[in-house]
Amino acid sequence: MKRKLALLFATLMVVAAVAPTFAAQDEAKPWLEKLVSVYEKTPLRVHWTADISMSFGEMTMTAEMTGNQLIRDTTHQRMEMDMAMSMPQGKMETSMLMVSDGEHIWTETSMPGGMKQVGKMSIAKMEELGKEAGLQMNLKAMDPKQMLSMLQEYVDFKFLGREDGRVTLSGPLNPEMLSAMNMGQLQGAAGGDMSITVSLDEKTVIPMDFEIQIDGQKLATMNFNKVDYLSGSDVPEGSFSYTPAEGVAVMDLDAAMAGAQ
Fold it and tell me: Engineered SS bond to 171: which of 157, 205, 218, 220, CB 3.0-4.6 Å?
């Protein structure tokens, strides 16, 4: 059960990662076009925190997360995240490292008791799975301009206005996108329609926070604390390479996904 709940939280984080670049109708579109330029200034590091609360019947789960993501280009990225989950079965603390080295995506999850789980998937396989799902689910599609174009057909954001130096956009996730991202089950369990509200800094256009909502009730909040623009020399050597610790088994996710098809 804990493993399945952790996967649900991880799915929400995928939505979190792409939410700020969702497309909009005419009033909101200029702001999102400005936002594209923010993410084009690579390398950069984004620092964030997140709080999630989900209720399924009488069971409630909460999680607090902190993390940062270092981006050099679409296929060279590094994300570090710590998460503390609380649920009726107890509490669980985990940390996660994701490294994209240009050819493969490595994930390392540190579990309670010192256990580590390591997975490896080729970027080519990720692209193949994305095509089969009818999505551009690949790192190349994480290019802001491509993502902005891709998501226009999935989300209808509206410009809600300016207040206290913030620009606010909000809109629903349509059923096609929820199905493509395997979020339909989560929405059904939560019992309502899912939408996202994004706040941008009016001057810098850097994302400040966003909320995922179910029928207007907050499901998850993510705050972008800081964005650092770096020079090439500021990026620590080895940031985009990964070598598993000695003795740690590596799951071949290419083979695992092929076997599941």
Answer: 157
